[in-house]
Write a sequence for this structure.
């Protein structure tokens, strides 16, 4: 448990020569470094809060070691690293605690027969967007964006925030049809996609499905937030899953449409 202080900071657990740091930078970061201080792995945006009880675990086997972060129930994984070779070549009994700039409380430390959670490839760290060093995606607005599975075909936003945007920064062909299937959970105020935008999501066109569940509207905005088309009734909004298309032609013409996707099938 890290207590709040004036300078940010975090805590560190050193186990078998591997340093595991829980930092308050980049929306909360879990970082793993080798004995020489070289960073091996980083997970950004884990979203921990001061005074929040968390479990830090270093899981070691004969020739490999990994770390994970869980909330107090010992069942909900916040972050999970891949496996690394044992820094010392074999397990050791080394364990120590460290704080940086803030005060903290450490309790219930022990060597246990098995971890709270076994390794799974579909873990929050592997699915989080963006990953450390990934320049293809940029998230703004405090949301929690993630792939639904490791095949990376569906994206989810799982945090309740006022507004958040995920920007695909990889270069794409400017003209053509952009298609996206969307499922809005009940209670969500709306969702949409930006096309012809910039890295700060301040220009371009916003195709937006808003209103109330079962009685929504398809809206088209030209950013910065200037209505280019009045809200129009969208008869398919009673279906949880819908499919959007945004077509750009000759760099000047733009249109948007929504198609029903009953049972998630393609239109």
């Amino acid at each position: 448990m890290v207590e709040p202080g004036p300078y940010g900071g975090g805590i560190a657990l050193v186990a078998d020569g591997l340093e595991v740091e829980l930092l308050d930078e980049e929306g909360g970061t879990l970082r793993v470094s080798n004995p020489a201080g070289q960073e091996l792995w980083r997970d950004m945006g884990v979203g921990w809060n001061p005074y929040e009880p968390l479990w830090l675990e270093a899981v070691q086997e004969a020739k490999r070691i990994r770390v994970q972060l869980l909330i107090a129930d010992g069942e909900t994984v916040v972050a999970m690293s891949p496996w690394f070779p044992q820094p010392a070549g074999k397990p050791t009994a080394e364990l120590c605690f460290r704080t940086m700039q803030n005060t903290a409380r450490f309790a219930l430390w022990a060597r246990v027969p098995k971890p709270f959670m076994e390794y799974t490839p579909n873990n929050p760290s592997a699915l989080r967007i963006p990953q450390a060093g990934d320049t293809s995606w940029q998230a703004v607005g405090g949301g929690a964006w993630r792939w639904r599975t490791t095949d990376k075909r569906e994206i989810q936003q799982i945090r309740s925030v006022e507004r958040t945007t995920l920007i695909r920064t990889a270069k794409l062909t400017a003209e053509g049809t952009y298609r996206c299937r969307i499922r809005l959970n009940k209670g969500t105020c709306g969702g949409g996609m930006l096309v012809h935008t910039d890295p700060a999501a301040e220009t371009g066109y916003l195709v937006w499905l808003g209103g109330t569940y079962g009685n929504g509207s398809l809206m088209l905005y030209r950013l910065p937030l200037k209505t280019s088309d009045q809200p129009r009734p969208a008869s398919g909004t009673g279906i949880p899953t819908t499919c959007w298309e945004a077509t750009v032609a000759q760099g000047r013409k733009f249109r948007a449409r929504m198609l029903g996707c009953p049972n998630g099938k393609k239109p």
